[in-house]
Each structure stands twice: as structure tokens, then as C-alpha cells.
Design goal:
Layout lengths: L1 H30 L8 E5 L4 E5 L3 E6 L12 E7 L2 E3 L12 E6 L8 E5 L4 E4 L2 E8 L2 E4 H7 L3 H8 L1 E5 L6 E5 L9 E5 L8 E4 L17 H4 L1 E4 L20 E5 L3 E5 L7 E5 L8 E4 H6 L5 H7 L4 E4 L4
Parallel strand pairs: 8-14
Antiparallel strand pairs: 1-2, 2-3, 3-4, 4-5, 6-9, 7-8, 9-10, 11-12, 12-13, 13-14, 15-18, 16-17, 17-20, 18-19
Length: 315
């Protein structure tokens, strides 16, 4: 019996030591800006609070965009071991040294404008003529940053004050007054509804508008894909056994140019609106896209459509 009790005691000691060791490791991780690992995590979508329950501790953070985001992108970190509350200092990404400059449209009563979209996120502006970022002495518009990596939005909201959740109980609200980060202040709304994780950027103190965080099918020009199912034909032989030139196809013309493929294939090129944000995939033939002016030839070229541009001769 004594051996059995001693074994139980040894097991309990080992469990306690492992519990405190894991708690210590996770506290150090949070102080370093990393997510704790020795725990069971849960997430409350209403409050955007993620909770980490270890053997002897409980920790929390307020998530801004996704539970997959690093700790440095979150706020309101808390850590409690047994009955003791320990301070967790707020960490920021060391690269967040940029400033933001906006030009506001005066007396504006317009609707929001889709500024950028990809398959992951949509960013709208409201009553803003321009948004520029200055970093390392260089100034570029926000769009150029978004096209490179849309997570610049996470870096921006790290610079803003989280002001609460809108009355729809899903939308996160952020605000920045005129300070060292912004010249005119900024309001940001981040939507968290099914199929809607849009971001709205607006002038300082802009109230939540009724059309914000609503499902809009407006991102085709940003997210369309080109699918070329054609195969270049083998050249035919003439009577002398020489290869004939493969006929080219003029698939589109405007006032100045003919747009030519090196072989006939326009009926085998499809423009795809992908199945994202709760909608089904839609497919269009290239000529339908051009005939209905759904996209410009420049937009198609920028997306990767290859063709020859032949200037028309004037008589």
C-alpha cells in the first residue's frame, strides 16, 4: 500500500512540475509575442475573445481578424496562473513604422467604392479620394501594398484604437484621431459575417452606413481568372511537303488596333468568376466578355491574356 501511495505521489509531483513548466513556457511565449501552445483553446465569435486553458493557467486575447493571426496582431492579452494575474506587455510588429495619409472628399454623400479585392478579402473606401502610405521615406498608394500583400490591413488596424463591436454584434470598429500615424484621422470597420469579411476605410468619425457589411457581388474585375483550353494545331503541309503558315485570328478590334491570336482559339478561352463568398462559379467565353464590355482588353492583358497588338493603317 505504501509503495502504491508513493507512486501516486510521484505521479502527482511530475504532473505539477509539468503543469508549472508548461505554464512558464507559455507565459514566456506570450511575453515574446507568440501564441501559447500547451493548452486547449476556444473562441467566442461574439466577443472575438480567444481563450487558452492550460493545466494551471488561463490566458486570453482579443482577436482582430482571425484566430490564425499571430499574437502581435491581437490585443487585450491576459494571463492568470492559479489566482495570480500576470501582466502581458503588448507587442507590435517591428516593421510597423509607416504612416498613412488620406485625402477626404468634402460634403460627401456617396456610397462606398470597392478599392481592392482578391479571393480572401475586399477593401472599400468611403468618401476618401486617396490613401497613401509613407514608409522608409517612400510614399505609395495603399493599392500597391494590397496588391503585394493584403495583410497590410492587419498592420493598419494595429495602429488604430479598437473602439468596440457594432450593434450587429459582428463588426469590429477602429478609430484613429489626427496623430502621428494619420494626417486626417481614420475610421475602419471590419466585417465578420458569413461570406463577408470586408474592410471599410472612411474619414474620421464616420458612422456605420447601412450599406456597409452587406453582401455585394461586385468583385469580378478583381478576381476573374483566365482559362485557355485551346491546343495549337499542327501545321498542314502543302503540295511540296512544306508546312503551311497557321492562320491567325483577329478576335477583337478597336479604333486603333486589331488584337490577334497566333491561331484560332477565342472560342476555347474562358473567363471565370470563381466560386467564392457563397456564390457559384460562373464561366464566360472571351467574346461574350468583350461584346458585353464586362472587361476591357487592358484588364484582360494585365491578368495575363497573351495576344499580338497590330496598329491599323490609315489611308
Amino acid at each position: 500500500m505504501g509503495i502504491f501511495l508513493k507512486a501516486i505521489k510521484n505521479v502527482l509531483v511530475i504532473i505539477i512540475m509539468l503543469g508549472f513548466l508548461s505554464a512558464g513556457v507559455d507565459y514566456v511565449r506570450m511575453n515574446s509575442g507568440d501564441v501559447p501552445i500547451f493548452n486547449i483553446s476556444s473562441y467566442d465569435q461574439t466577443s472575438n475573445i480567444e481563450t487558452f486553458r492550460g493545466l494551471f493557467y488561463i490566458a486570453q486575447r482579443k482577436v482582430k481578424a482571425s484566430v490564425n493571426e499571430p499574437l502581435v496582431d491581437s490585443s487585450d492579452m491576459q494571463y492568470k496562473i492559479l489566482i495570480f494575474d500576470l501582466k502581458v506587455p503588448r507587442k507590435f510588429n517591428s516593421a510597423d513604422t509607416f504612416t498613412l495619409e488620406t485625402k477626404v472628399i468634402d460634403n460627401c454623400h456617396d456610397r462606398s467604392v470597392l478599392y481592392f479585392a482578391n479571393t480572401k478579402i475586399k477593401v472599400y473606401t468611403y468618401c476618401l479620394e486617396s490613401i497613401n502610405i509613407t514608409d522608409g521615406g517612400k510614399t505609395k498608394d495603399l493599392l500597391s501594398y494590397l496588391e503585394k500583400d493584403h495583410k497590410i490591413i492587419d498592420d493598419i488596424d494595429n495602429k488604430l484604437d479598437f473602439t468596440g463591436i457594432y450593434k450587429d454584434k459582428t463588426t469590429l470598429m477602429f478609430q484613429a484621431k489626427n496623430d502621428e500615424f494619420t494626417n486626417n484621422g481614420l475610421t475602419m470597420y471590419r466585417c465578420n459575417k458569413e461570406y463577408i469579411n470586408d474592410v471599410y476605410l472612411a474619414p474620421n468619425d464616420t458612422p456605420f452606413m447601412s450599406e456597409f457589411c452587406t453582401l455585394k457581388d461586385d468583385d469580378f474585375k478583381f478576381v476573374f481568372e483566365i482559362e485557355d483550353k485551346s491546343e495549337k494545331p499542327e501545321p498542314e503541309l502543302d503540295e511540296e511537303g512544306k508546312e503551311k503558315e497557321i492562320p491567325k485570328e483577329t478576335f477583337y478590334s478597336d479604333e486603333e488596333y486589331d488584337y490577334v491570336f497566333d491561331y484560332s482559339k477565342s472560342d476555347q478561352i474562358y473567363i471565370i468568376n470563381p466560386a467564392i463568398r457563397g456564390r457559384a462559379e460562373r464561366r464566360y467565353k472571351l467574346k461574350e466578355i468583350l461584346d458585353k464590355k464586362m472587361l476591357t482588353i487592358e484588364e484582360l492583358e494585365k491578368k495575363g491574356l497573351k495576344f499580338e497588338k497590330v496598329k491599323k493603317t490609315t489611308e
